[in-house]
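Cont'd.
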Amino acid sequence: MDLRWQVSVESGRVVGVPAGRVDETTWEAFTGHLTAAVKEAAANGAPLVVDLSGLDYMSSRGLRALTIARREAGETVAITLAAPNARMREILAISRYDKLFKIADSVESDI
Amino acid sequence: MLVRFWGTRGSLPVARPALAVQGKIARALVAASGRKFNDELEAHAWARNNLPFHTYGSYGGASSCVEIEGADGAFIVCDMGSGLREFGLDAARRCADGHPRVYHFFMSHLHWDHIMGFPFFGPAFDPGAEIVVHAGHPDAEQALRRQQEEISFPVPFDWLRARFTFITHQPGETFQAAGLTVSMIGQHHSHESYGYRFERDGRAVIYSTDSEHKLDNMESEKAFEHFFRDADLVICDTMYSLGDTVSLKQDWGHSSNVVAIDLCHAARAKRLALFHHEPTYSDRDIQHMHAESIRYEELVRADRPPLEVICAYDGLEVRV
């Protein structure tokens, strides 16, 4: 399954919207999109919200790409993961990524 | 092949204190409340079927030592952790029944928890025993000799009576040993570590412990997917959560349950054994980690064939 990605600026935030799944076949594309989104957010002085609502699931490759993105973002860009589906919520809990990232119920609730 | 786990704990052997054992007994008594058993066999049968493993059993506390049976009659052993002592006692019993006194060891690396059982390995004193140590490290012999120097142990290596051979292999090399085809892969760990692939009659067992899959080197995981390809059993370092390995415990040289599952999925492996358990984990913690691992496998399986996720414990036998 392909990974699709859209990015927009909404309410002073950069919102990245991946769709599909992130696994061993798509993580490199996901990393590239995330890196570009972090740069865009930094250039705009804006936080980055990753809207997970269109994502079927993300394996460890995608989760680790999120960690790389946050390291690149440093103190400049806050990253929030928003609207994970039930499967993604479980994955975030099992991996303990729910302790590493801020998780918002929806994109709107993170405003 | 038959895989027998003699030690499954990481970093440091552990023994459950009295309080932990008392807790198991109390939970079992409460669960069995009102029941009557005519003998111990009946009680065992009920407990086995009705109590969680963390209450009826234990994952054990010996450090890494795994035996693979089923080659040319020689013993095949991965690592010399504290589980080696029990293996040595059992091997002596089997040798008394006629088993050849030939031992092939395959060393992941030379850190203390992986060699500490060797000074207590009885067959090393047997003048009729032949011990072959396979390693990726050229300093394997030095590591074993050094831990038996007087400052650490009263019996020097030179007092051992078995015939020793140390063989250093190169990563990527495939060689024959004890009737098995063996290949080796370099892994990321302090002072390096090595994983092994053992093959015989179309079956493959992987031993890959103390291996960190680095955040900034995910491209290298393709090599592990190839190394694990179509394996019947992958024994994998799953010491920490993924979150731990990218934060507090980054660069500690270990991996996570979810990375192991992803590698096995990509490799189309059939069965994963969670291994090298964190020494601070209780039996309940390890069983919880096992349940989470099974669930994660379901969540990310998609259209791949199911991967069976088992949790290694001291005494577990797995037929491949």
